[in-house]
Hints:
Layout: H1 3-10, H2 22-40, H3 44-65, E1 75-76, E2 83-86, E3 90-91, E4 96-97, E5 102-103, E6 108-110, E7 120-121, E8 126-127, E9 132-134, E10 138-139, E11 144-145, E12 150-151, E13 160-162, E14 167-169, E15 172-173, E16 176-177
Parallel strand pairs: 1-4, 3-6, 4-7, 5-8, 6-9, 7-10, 8-11, 9-12, 11-13
Antiparallel strand pairs: 13-14, 15-16
Helix pairs in contact: 2-3
Amino acid sequence: MGLFKWFNKLSFINNWGRLGGIHGIIVMFVYRIGNIIYYKVNIPILKQVLWIMYRMVDLLIIRLFLNCEFPGQCQIGKDLRLPHGAKGVLINPYCKIGDHVTIMHQVSLGQNKESKKAPEVCDYAYIGNGAKIHGGIRIGTNSKVGANAVVLTSVPDNCTAVGVPSVIKGKQMDGVIN
């Protein structure tokens, strides 16, 4: 596979604005490389050497200079949108993020001490500025999390969670939106 086809497969070079400029492009490039090393490399010695090199780049560039955490172990679907780059975004290594998700800046997706589970964000979800989502919480398809919301319960499909602690708005009951 040629170099340009490989870049297009990673799907970030031609999406400059969607990833928030060079900041988001660097973050997603390093994340995708780490993800490939973690899940695709099967030769143990080679995997360890590449993983150590990835961790050094991740620590020095992504965490220290770009101020975010996108570990290679987390599973992120295609077409992740980072309109403000990845500024202050913290993602747990065991978090699962679906396709076409939008994550604004200062968002935290992590484990809580009790359950040791990480959140799952389904397809087409939107997570607003400064939202905190911790624990085994599921953010449903087409759901939205408002700015600075602290999500303590799962958000059903096509609903919005706002406030501290979050309250679910627009919940579907028998086909009628309340």
